[in-house]
Amino acid sequence: MSRPFPPPPFKIGDLVIDPPILQAPMAGFTNAAFRQMVRDYGGSGLIATEMVNARGFAWMDEHAEEHPDRLWGVAEEARPLAVQIWDNDPQTMAKVGRRLVEEYRVSVVDINFGCPVRQVTEKAHSGSYLLRTPQRMFEIISKLVEACSPTPVTAKIRLGCSPESINCNDVAKVVEEAGAAALTVHGRTAKDMFRGHADWDRISEIKGHLKNIPLIGNGDLDSAEKVVHAFKTYDVDGVMIARACLGRPWLFSQAAAALRGDPVPPDPTLAEQRDCMLRHYQLVVDRFGEEKGTVLMRKYACCYAQGKHGARYFRTNVARVNTAEEFHRVVEEYFPSFSNEEVKAMS
């Protein structure tokens, strides 16, 4: 199917998403420091937090505890900004959604119906587990929509719980009927986790089952070229980039340029990527202190090195750092200095 190109901005409620490229909420990664790195490069029409456990938030609120670390930066940072929450109780979700709207002034409240991790699904009966019970999803969404009005509520789902129980078309109708302002679909089932390839044909098919709300596709978008292909080929209003942007916060600006028809900016040089990582590190340390911040940064540092020549040696060494001095020394000694292409050219 040939689609109009370039894709126009779309709306989530009254919020204009321009460019129509969203940054996915990712547990353990999309904290305030990472979001700032994405903003520095630009190109994302909507940025999202990590997913927040609504029940844990409510407990902290009732006991006058500090709100979750995953809400670090939310009150002060630039808008638009989406906060994603999860739980299976409509009342708890509505209560937390209202607090996010009133106290944090968020732009969008997103509901996670897609997480496939066992701790969320089998233990908490939340995330993608709820795809088994569309009526429960309806109750959660409708309660949140009422509590958060006029702030829009959105939902993120997978194709189904397993390849044998794909029900995304029916779930999409429920999501819209409950009052959600947009639907994001990851093109795998919960059972698939992140294996195999996202099924964009299935995602595109869902559009015919929606009446008015926009459809956002998610899965395997790891280059500007793939973002362009998704818009030209599939019936989606927006796309969401997830794992591919970890260690590559400039990916959004590259994709946005491609959608405009402008030359796609090249990846930053390895020296520039290293400097980007060090700025990211400083933001994390400023919030959590040297010890905790250094430990937290290990996983991000591995992402920045991924796919580069010598990445394995860097990962092995950065996984052991505990202080700023150790972190900077490992970066200086082991962060890749040559791309794989440069190494091939030299051999």
Automatic annotation (TrEMBL):
Gene Ontology molecular function, alphabetical: oxidoreductase activity
Top-level taxon of the source organism: Bacteria
Main function: Catalyzes the synthesis of 5,6-dihydrouridine (D), a modified base found in the D-loop of most tRNAs, via the reduction of the C5-C6 double bond in target uridines.
Keyword field: Flavoprotein, FMN, NADP, Oxidoreductase, RNA-binding, tRNA processing, tRNA-binding
Ligase listed as a keyword: no
UniProt enzyme class: oxidoreductase
One protein family per Pfam: Dus
Alphabetical list of PROSITE patterns matching this protein: UPF0034 (PS01136)
Protein's name in the database: tRNA-dihydrouridine synthase
Names of required cofactors: FMN
Catalytic activity of the protein: a 5,6-dihydrouridine in tRNA + NAD(+) = a uridine in tRNA + NADH + H(+); a 5,6-dihydrouridine in tRNA + NADP(+) = a uridine in tRNA + NADPH + H(+)
DUS-like FMN-binding domain mapped to chain residues: 23-333
Organism taxonomic ancestry: Bacteria, Pseudomonadati, Planctomycetota, Planctomycetia, Pirellulales
Xref: InterPro entries: Aldolase_TIM, DUS-like_FMN-bd, DUS_fam, DusB-like, tRNA-dHydroUridine_Synthase_C, tRNA_hU_synthase_CS
EC number: 1.3.1.-
UniProt family annotation: Belongs to the dus family.
